[in-house]
Amino acid sequence: MSTYYDCFIAGDHEAAKHLVAGALNSQGFLVEVQPDGDWYVRRGNMTTTVFVGALAGDNFQITFGVRFFVDASGQLVARLDKNVAVGFFKGGILGLSKIDNAFAQTATALYNTLMSAGVLTNTIEG
């Protein structure tokens, strides 16, 4: 499974960030803007996750990072980043599976949102 998913976005950078935030919110994530401009996104409950791990169901906490940068042609790139080590410590193999599924669903939501808006020019998984 990929550890990051890059979306190359044409047009206004601030408008693109609003589209990305909307896609993340549609998947239940809260967006926290960090001092460096990157985003920390999370859903679920850490306390429940610590006590019952992957058995927390919908309350299993999932966190991703979103980093923004500009490519050589001036397009905004939004990178959805998954931290695999944290998932293992939260819920073992089942936790990793939950994170993998959430990552795939979130990447699909980003793709669909940006395609529907007509601003997605390319994607790269790594």
Could you outline the blueprint of secondary structure elements for this entry?
Elements: E1 4-9, H1 13-26, E2 30-33, E3 39-43, H2 46-52, E4 62-70, E5 76-82, H3 84-116, E6 120-125
Antiparallel strand pairs: 1-5, 1-6, 2-3, 3-4, 4-5
Helix pairs in contact: 1-3
Using brief descriptors, characterize the structure shown:
single chain; 126 residues; alpha+beta; 6-stranded antiparallel sheet; 3 helices; 6 strands; 43% helix; elongated
Which ranges are low-confidence, i.e. pLDDT below 50, for 5 or more consecutive residues? none
**Apparent shape:** elongated
Could you estimate the helical fraction of the residues in percent?
Answer: 40-55%
Helix tally equals: 3
Rounded to the nearest angstrom, the radius of gyration is: 15 Å
Main pleated-sheet profile: 6 strands, antiparallel
Q: Structural class, from helix and strand content?
A: alpha+beta
Distance between the termini: 9 Å
Numbering strands along the chain, what is their spatial order in the largest sheet? Answer: 2-3-4-5-1-6
